Amino acid sequence: MKESSARIIRLAEYKEPDYWIKNTQLVIRIFDGYTEVSSELTMVKNARVDGLPTLVLDGVEQTIKQLHFDDTEISQYQYSDDKLTVQPVAEEFIFKAVTRIDPENNTSLEGLYKSGSMYCTQCEAEGFRKITFYLDRPDVMATFTTRIEADKASFPTLLANGNPIDEGELENGRHFATWQDPFVKPAYLFAAVAGDLVRKDDSFTTCSGREISLRIFAEPRNAHKTDFALDSLKRSMKWDEKRYGREYDLDIFMIVASDFFNMGAMENKGLNIFNSAAVLANQETSSDDRFERIEAIVAHEYFHNWSGNRVTCRDWFQLSLKEGFTVYRDAHFTSDMHDATVKRIKDARFLKTVQFPEDSGPNAHPVKPQEYQEINNFYTVTIYEKGAEVVGMINTLIGEDLFRKGSDLYFERFDGCAATTDDFVACMQEVSGYDFTQFKRWYTQAGTPTVVVSQHYDAEQQQYQLSFSQSQKPTPGQSEKLPMVIPVKMALLNAQGDELAIDCDADFNQQTQVLTLTEAQTTVTFSGVSEQPYASLFRDFSAPVRVEFELSEAELLLLASKDKNAYNRFDAVQKIYLDTLIAMIKNGDNQTPSLVLDVVRASLADNALSPAIKSLMLALPSYQLLVDSLQQKVDADALVAARQAMKQSIANSFKAEWAELTLSLQSEQAYQFNAEQAGRRELQALTLSYWAETGDAAALDFAKALYQQANNQTDRLNGLKAVLDNGSDALVSDLLDDFYQRWHEDTQMVETWLLLQASAKGVTIDTIKALMQHEAFDITNPNKVRSVLAGFMNNFTSYHQKDFSGYDFIAQRIIQLDAINPQVAARFVTALENWKVFSGQRAEAMKQALQSIADSQGRSPDVSEKVEKALA
Ligand code: 0A1
Ligand code: ZN
User: Fold this and answer.
1) Which residue of 331, 511, 526, 859 is 20 to 30 Å from 134, comparing CA positions?
2) CA 300 to ligand 2 centroid distance, Å
3) What is the pTM of this model?
4) Is 60 exposed, middle or buried (0-12, 13-18, 19+ CB in 10 A)?
């Protein structure tokens, strides 16, 4: 493992490479115990560079067998610190290398590694250098030919990017397959697979009439779980044609499911590799949430074929160019497939819960970072989700039609190129004439802006004023913040919730109903307002900002019950819960005020609300969201006490309603994954959890029956969760044993089984330790590790337990994991890094846990960077 070297890579230091690679020919010979890689790189000197510079190639853990320039062996070379330095003697040459690597012992899951019985690759961001020597940077783009050789009986399936051009038998029971990818690509999009896999076929006819062969590969025991992903893929292909005019280019599109994978999935050209958990699904073992997630990830990876592969990133500072845009695209896809409001509510809630804390913590970074030590640490919610919000604001500012024109121009102009976020914005500016100069601060300034709003109504003048004041706290390395361009989608409502016509003196777009703020302070005067209006601001979460707008109870109640914008209605209800909880925490008073119960009553009684929206409105804000919303040092114990008291009070106040609704939501319909059915099941899960919270034995009987009689995973989990949180120890252990007995051969079900226990109310560290000792656990498998450890860390009341023991426990696990898989280990540092938001000894205990990681031997650059920033 690499020791921390604190090497800092800076955007300001970007320069083109000295050499380009035009074509890459690879032969990967897989043997038991080692793999030999032969590469032939057709290279040419960069015409903009003088002289004949040394060639410096990236290469990690390479055992060199031979090096050649054309046919001349290279005798003089230096290989140290993961760089191979050689001196070319001509401007054009073929660099040849034969090296050995050790995929069987590659637990980092980057480069070529073994996942169960199969070999597969993960090259983003810098994994290709673990396969062979290369200019492993995204602006070096080449065509690839890949030949894989392996034992035929053990590895009948041999795959790589592009089209198959040759295959055949070799001596000793071995065979080979050769694949050719005609599209230029950077090395991070390379993929190869060797395994004993079953293949599920389908096809898709593109808008121009080309027939594409679609293939999903999985291990034989998972063959029954591939249909949903294939269908999702076809929906994605069609959607991208319709919404973005993007047609698929190769003749084959392949997906491979891998049990060992660091992330969700990877968009390798023509050969996507997926975490099994993000692709394999069926009714019996996958919940509605899982189906939705899989559909979105399949779409995301597919959409990358244009936003990422055909047009890629010039350097890793541009990561959000492909990720922000692709998340924006997949969110839009999900909205079109299901319920747009539900999707928007969930995305905004996720951003506030996870990205806002990142943006106010030690790891805050701009959507276009200026520097990094370890690029793997920058696959963050800021790059992905905030990046998507930034793209969404561009759409909001210029409108959908011009946005589409801009994206057409972008794809056309940069096809086959490595581009920058500036290039993307320039296309949007060119088609719209909108000046994005100030807007680009969204790419360069870290942190979440706060917008403070105040209002004034002058009945005599029939004038209404809104004053907006925006500000941003300093973030690490950025003390000065300048005002942002903030689109405020808004309406003024009368007492019936109807929208008033808007006549104002500011930059307000009548068509899109968007008011654009550009200054630190803006006062907008609305004329002809005959009664005190209700301001519905930031509709549909039109900008990723914190809003402080003090409203009276009457105003909040009107917005919560009558706003026609369903997102804002939800937001008003959440604000009531949040403000109340914050007041309870501050006052140390755990009485739930009638306002909250009134809101719950009104939401329960409103038959116009869809079950999905109703369940979102009735759910209390998570602990994580509360922590972020407090904006002061958090007393975690007081926070837990207040939220638990409110939940209890809501549960008890409407006990009969919870029971009745839970029963009435039971349906005999055949299971289908669609928005309507999923919404019903989601609401039932919520009503059941309130009902079970009352301690009513009938609720537990219902939950147990739901678990036992379920013909689908959603119902089964909903029943089981209610039992886990409220049932007797005996019942809990009965059902958990039953679950494991029935499903222990199904990997996804075992992961769920581990997660359920780690996330259950009141779980102790002893239980977590026992889970890590269980036969089903494997510390080298990221999904299993995430199930147990992320399950525990997100289990607020258990992780933040009163004796603080959760922190040291996690620190020790991070140290342990770092020796196995640094990328996964580093992700867990997030659980400690926001220690400063907590008060007193708790903060000290979290800091000490971080310090113990900092003091440990042999830390990876991944973990070091995050820990050092957290302690700075
Ligand atoms: N580009 C992929 C995510 C991904 C990133 C890094 C990985 O390994 C270090 C793996 C996957 C996506 O956005 O889906
Ligand atoms: Zn992506």
Assistant:
1) 859
2) 6
3) 0.98
4) buried
